[in-house]
Amino acid sequence: MALPDSGLVSRLREIVGDAHVITDPDAATAYLTDWAGGSTGSAAVVRPADTDQTARVVRLCADHGVALTPQGGNTGLVGGSVPPSDDPRRWVVLSTRRLDDVEAVDVDGRCVGAGAGATLAAVQAAAAAAGLEFGVDLAARDSATVGGMVGTNAGGIRMIVHGDMRAQILGIEAVLACGDVLRRWRPLRKDNVGYHLPGLLAGSEGTLAVVTRVLLRLVDRPSATVVAMIAVRDSTAAGRVLSQVRGGGHRLEAVEIMTRPGVDLVVAGGSRDPFPGSDAGAYLLMELAADAAAAAELLTGVDGLLDAVVADGPARDLWALREGHTEAIARSSVTTPVKLDVSVPLGDVPALIDWVEAYAARRAVRAVLFGHLGDGNIHVNLLDVPTGGEGDVVDDVLDHVAAVGGSISAEHGIGRAKAHRMPLGRGAADIAAMRAVKSALDPHCVMNPGVVLPED
């Protein structure tokens, strides 16, 4: 991977301004290293201020055959938001962080427009000020951006009730590989004219276009929520509790599971354990559209429940135990943790957790599992994996997930890390159709090459 030539860099500076083209390696480090620790060599970082500048940058890169990686908050874990270090092509990282405005909320239309660089927290704040909510929530809300969330089709903790990022998109503005601007921007719930291109761009990880703005659906806030932290014997018991609560007549806003090793790590870092001294093998965190009295009545007599604490929402102190996992895992592992984001059929989550824990014991590594029990998405973290053994561990886990009918990527995307494993999740005809779409929209393969689909 190399920098564009000096003449092209000069033309990029003319478009976005000198301060927003970064070629110094030290200054570019934050843009060339992702959350998984993957880093790259030399690339120019370009930070356009609006869609017009973005289109001009993309067109210039396309005309000169320069590969381009769109980047939002750079919080990805699969190498999709940074270029590869071993690629000889000239490369530009197009950062959308300056496209961070959030428009006034359309209360009647239940929607808001936001730039690709706007953080999830900023969108949530705008929605809350208008008495509404945005349907996707992540622990990384202060750093994850709208464009990146669209690119990976993020799910998060509210997917059980509102769906993934694709379900929140009413309209989109994006720059195609040729530099043309695609704009669909109508606050309509029903608009069935032709192919759903916004849905196609969701999950495309910057391989088809650069998303610059998104018109986001908003939802009504529940009048009251209650959060219950529930201690259970193991993941099988957690599944039984969830099944019984689901039949109780109250809307589930979120259902999260945490196994004992992860809880212990977070508590060791300073968080409060609601059940000190408990021998529970897992904790279940539920948020329901109900009040505390209704939740307490619902939990009375539930089979498999060892103990429970109930608090009025948002109950940030209880949520802190779940949201502290990522940081606690990073502190604890002596090597870079192997982090996998997988899903299995809803009833198979306990079996997956049991299998991973037994596998980790055989490999003499530590397993920390947590995630979205309500939609079958578990975050598998394997700690202290010996250097050089990461590939075997990843293969073993993903092979098992595929064998039981699961998905090797639930919400973090495919990126570069999983691109060569695409056949585990998609058949030959499926992959061929995706390649045809890629070729049609990006015939010269300049948009994030090597991401999602491996290069031949």
Low-confidence blocks of residues: none
How is the biggest beta sheet arranged?
7 strands, antiparallel
Radius of gyration: 22 Å
Mean pLDDT rating: 94
Strand content: 15-25%
How many DSSP E strands? 16
Cofactor: FAD
GO molecular function: FAD binding; oxidoreductase activity
EC number: 1.-.-.-
Keywords: FAD, Flavoprotein, Oxidoreductase
Describe this structure in words.
This is FAD-linked oxidoreductase. Belongs to the FAD-binding oxidoreductase/transferase type 4 family. The protein contains 15 helices and 16 strands. The two termini are 18 Å apart. The mean pLDDT is 94. By secondary structure, the chain is α+β, with helices and mostly antiparallel strands.
Question: Which properties best describe this structure?
Answer:
single chain, alpha+beta, 7-stranded antiparallel β-sheet, 5-stranded antiparallel β-sheet, globular, FAD-bd_PCMH_sub1, oxidoreductase activity, FAD-linked oxidoreductase, FAD-bd_PCMH
